């Protein structure tokens, strides 16, 4: 993904500006390509993971019960595998869109694919790994979009229980991630519009 967005820069010049297409159209085609391959990779990962879990632990039924926390973060509730899986797919799909947009945006400023790759890893995994270690962040942990990567613990309220933040739930996750998608899309569209106008002038 980082290669797709940074290979257009040669000696610090954007060769995309030389194509007889609008910059917005060209960037959109790259966005769709990156998102397509990301979704295909994710679906393969899900199939392999579910297949292996079925073989190893015997969880082969979508109705297999999973005991976890309820909405209050205290009482116990029984979920089925299908509910957890469908919720996880919804959250992960939105996170894939957000991730592609983030790479697209940062590629305008970080034009080396390895540097960009490590910055993306830092942004994503710092939220996943660091937030649970810093108690002052617990109250706003629901505002970190990539913390929702562990969708199972979000949907089953395990994270809400561990961090004492009942806002860490499926509905909040969808709203927060969608909000970031809209924000990044607006920034990217504005940047593309400015670059296109500059090129035409």
C-alpha termini separation: 31 Å
* Poorly predicted ranges: none
Instruction: Profile the largest sheet.
Output: 2 strands, antiparallel
Radius of gyration: 20 Å
The global form is globular
Order of helices and strands: HEEHEEHHHHH
Total strands: the figure is: 4
Strand fraction: 5-15%
Description of the structure:
- By secondary structure, this protein is mostly helical.
- The protein is built from seven helices and four strands.
- The strands form two sheets. It has a two-stranded antiparallel ribbon with strand order 1-2. A two-stranded antiparallel sheet has the order 3-4.
- A hairpin with a 2-residue loop joins β1 (9-10) and β2 (13-14).
- The longest helix is centred in the N-terminal third of the chain and has 35 residues, at 23-57.
- The protein is globular.
- The chain starts with a helix and ends with a helix.
Features:
mainly alpha, two-stranded antiparallel ribbon, 4 strands, 63% helix, globular
What is the fold's blueprint, element by element?
Layout: H1 2-6, E1 9-10, E2 13-14, H2 23-57, E3 65-69, E4 76-80, H3 81-106, H4 113-130, H5 151-155, H6 158-163, H7 170-200
Antiparallel strand pairs: 1-2, 3-4
Helix pairs in contact: 2-3, 3-7
């Amino acid at each position: 993904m980082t290669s797709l967005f940074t290979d257009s820069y040669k000696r610090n010049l954007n060769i995309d500006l030389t194509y007889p297409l609008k910059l917005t159209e060209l960037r959109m085609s790259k966005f769709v390509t990156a998102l397509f391959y990301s979704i295909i990779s994710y679906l393969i990962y899900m199939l392999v993971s579910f297949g292996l879990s079925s073989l190893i632990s015997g969880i082969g039924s979508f109705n297999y019960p999973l005991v976890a926390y309820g909405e209050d973060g205290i009482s116990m509730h029984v979920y089925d595998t299908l509910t957890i899986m469908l919720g996880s797919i919804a959250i992960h799909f939105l996170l894939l869109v957000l991730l592609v947009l983030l790479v697209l945006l940062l590629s305008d400023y970080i034009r080396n694919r390895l540097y960009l790759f490590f910055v993306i890893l830092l942004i994503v995994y710092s939220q996943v790994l660091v937030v649970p270690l810093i108690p002052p962040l617990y109250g706003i942990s629901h505002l970190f979009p990539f913390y929702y990567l562990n969708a199972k613990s979000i949907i089953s309220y395990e994270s809400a229980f561990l961090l004492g933040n009942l806002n860490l739930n499926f509905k909040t996750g969808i709203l927060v991630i969608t909000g970031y998608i809209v924000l990044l899309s607006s920034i990217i569209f504005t940047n593309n519009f400015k670059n296109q106008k500059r090129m035409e002038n």
